[in-house]
Structure formats: structure tokens, C-alpha cells
Amino acid sequence: MVIPDDGEYVTRVDYRVVFERDVEGRPVVHGLVRSRLRLPCQRCLSDVRIDVESPLRLVLVRTDEAAAALDADFDPLVVSDDSIQPIDLIEDELLLAIPPFPRHALGGCGFPDASEDANFLASDRGLASGADGADDSVDSGGPPNPFAILETLRREK
Questions:
Q1: In 10 A of CB 43, how many CB atoms?
Q2: 148-156 and 114-124 helices cross at what angle (nearest 10)?
Q3: Which of 52, 127, 149, 151 meets the CB 3.0–4.6 Å disulfide criterion with 97?
Q4: Measured CA distances, 41 to 47, 70, 91, 94, 95 (Å)
Q5: Residue 18 CB coordination number (10 Å)
Q6: Structure confidence at residue 31 (pLDDT)
Q7: For residue 117, what pLDDT is reported?
């Protein structure tokens, strides 16, 4: 299946879906959904390509009570009628497979490191050094303290 995406980019979705009955006679759905999605990076807001893969292991049930009684091997899918649209299953699985914060790998963004941004902003405003000229934002024994700027502001009042 190919999903057009605003005319510029086409997303290919590979899937395999099998509908059958298990040994207990329950209707089950087995399969796999795989794609490479274009999502906004949560660090730099440019596009990032994320590979997603989601296995399907569903049992079709009619009520929430039947869903609650299922063992942990299958996820319930509550259906209200006798028909189901496979495209809806595929779409739901893709949505569930998206990471909560899609982003490039470290160093993959065009943005500098967040600690570099904090040091740049502090020095740009003249807040990184105290009244005596000593740099309070950077501890010589470790990473920069993000609250050092607040200490400087407190001393200025």
C-alpha cells in the first residue's frame, strides 16, 4: 500500500494480515505492519524518517467484558458488527508504533547541543559571569549548571 503525503513524498506501507480462528474458536488477527514514516523532529522541527514495525496479535470481541477476560498474549479489538476494515487496523497500528518524541539521532539535527545553546544565550546577555568576572555557569568538575544563571540574577538584585 502506498499513502500519498502532500504530493511531495509517498509513504510505502508493507503489511501482512491473516484472519483466522484460534484453537478456542475465537476470531483472531495476526500480522505485521512496517513503514518508514516522515515525522517532524522534536528537537529541530525538520523532517526525520522513522522506521516503524508493529506486530498484530488481536482477538475480535463484542464486549468490553470479553476484552477484559482475555489473556495477555493477545490484544482485544472490540467490534460492533460483523465487518471490519483492514485499512483501519493498519492505520491504528501505524499510529501506535510512532514514538512519542520522534527525533534525529544525537548529532543528527542541524541544531547545536542544548547545553551549547544555554551557554551561548547566557554569554550573549552577559549573565554567564558574575559581578567579579568569575564564570558561575560552568563548574570545572562537571557539566554546566543550568541554574547558575538564576544565581547571577539573584545577586544582581
A1: 18
A2: 20
A3: 52
A4: 6, 37, 21, 17, 16
A5: 10
A6: 93
A7: 52
Compute CA distances 19 → 25, 67, 86, 89, 93, whole Å: 12, 18, 10, 12, 16
Residues of the chain under the 50 pLDDT cut = 1-2, 127-139
Under a CB-based contact definition with an 8 Å cutoff, are residues 35 and 52 in contact?
Answer: yes
Residues 6+ apart with CB under 8 A from 155: 130, 131
For the whole prediction, is pTM greater than 0.85?
no
Residue 76 phi/psi, 5-degree rounding, is -80, 150
Q: Tally the residues of the chain.
A: 157
Please state, in angstroms and rounded to a whole number, the distance separating the CA atoms of residues 92 and 86: 10
Q: Give φ, ψ of 147 to 5 degrees.
A: -95, 0
For residue 99, the tally of other CB atoms under 10 A from its CB is 11
